[in-house]
Amino acid sequence: MSKELVQKWYNALPNAEKDLPLILLDGIVYTPTTAYNEVMRNSPVGIRLQALIEQGKFGTSTEDEQTIAKTRLEQRMRSLPDKPLFATLSNKVFTPSQLLQEIEEGTSIGQQWKTNEINHMRNLMRLR
Question: What pTM was estimated for this model as a whole?
Answer without folding.
Answer: 0.88
